[in-house]
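note to self: the first set is below, dont mix up w the second
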Amino acid sequence: MTTASVKTKSGMSALSLVYCGMFAALMMIGANITSFVPFLVVGGVPITLQTFFAVLAGLLLGSRLGAISMTVYMVVGLAGAPVFAKFHGGFGAILLPTFGFIVSFILVAYVVGKIVEKYGSLRSYIVAGLVGLVVNYVFGTNWMYAAFKLWSAAPEAFSYAVAWAWMVPPLPKDILLSILAGIFGHRMYRVLKVRRAH
């Protein structure tokens, strides 16, 4: 069976599949970067590069392929592969308060991709990166708050304000990386000429 026929039946080329797999792998590395750089743990909380790679997936692959690559990452982890932060994996991860951030990566890539599909300037890429960060924080933090209140044992004196306070340590890093992702993504897209799938 030729590559062209595979594309006709699946709607994705072999190269698209490679890109999706590559970003799924990058997400695994980004989730566990503290295994190689231990000082990126703040207050016992690992500061990962997942948001950076989720944003970059949307910038380089577009909304459809970017979202697919993040979905692949999530499904691989739920299937049992230790690809989530701290090398966690398995369907039980869906009950973790932080699982909302993993779901948010799909939305991040999709929203970021939609923005740059419509606007191709460097400014648009940077804005898209920051919008993706907002999506990640809003969705993930609200999921975490709901999880602690509904099915997970909430820490003492836990509140909505506390949930957001936990997001302060990684925020400066994520803002900087989102801006850098926009700059890098704009440059790499022009160099590699990645074909977007609308």
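second set (the one i keep forgetting abt)
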Amino acid sequence: MIITLSNRKRGKDVMPLEVNILGYNHKQETIDRPRGMSLYQWFYCERGSGALTVDDQRMVIREKQGFLLHPHVTHTYRPLSDDWTVHFVGFKGPMCATLLMQLGMYDSGAYYFSDPDFFRDRIADMFHLYMRDRQDHNGIAAACFHLLLGLSERISQVEHIGTYNANPIVDRAISAIERRYMEPLSIEDIAAEAGVSNEYLCSLFKKTVGQTVHHFLTVTRIVNARLQLLQFPDRPIADIATDCGFRSASHFCSVFRKHSGSTPAKYRQTANISDLHN
């Protein structure tokens, strides 16, 4: 469900913060905005997964993750699964830039949510306020302000996999990796989904992305493993290894140590949510 709110002015002055659009349990379609929007936008992924590209930086958005978009930032987002469902709010006003800077929301991009219920509940509150009184702009703005204040303590920016210039063949290959990294995925499988030969894909991928297909697949698995180690501190490492596409726990530990500088167990003991920035 999406609600678009009409702007309200007080005399000649716009409200310092006003909500312009709300989305709740919205099955997200593909959006491509070369010039961005005039709004700030916060999204939270309730189900499924999607791909976000911001200024040529590509990120995958999964459950318990979301993303922030600043005004006039080039962006594209599209579903990677049929059930990609999001909640979101779009807002603007003269106080927004200063407020977001003070709250540490400096960058457009993907974020991890340590308390998913908080975002969902605040969006639901704004929907209830709107349904009760569609003219209660002050109440909805106050609820959005509460959302931003609380959200600042519940988010951490997620690292992105890489930056590259768009290419449809490479896009298809990366989409295959993002959707199937948990499988025993081969170069042949990825090339087949991209619709080209193995040799052509490997050459084009390295030229476009600056790394090999195999390295990109490995880093994708490591990034998702790091996230699971932090999200699910009691989950067996062997299960995480399997879920992230590694052939065994020992193989996972070896690759993880090479890329992260420590074993998965040590990383889990010493890391915290802020380490997702690194």
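remember for set 2: The domain at 164-277 is CATH 1.10.10.60 (Arc Repressor Mutant, subunit A).
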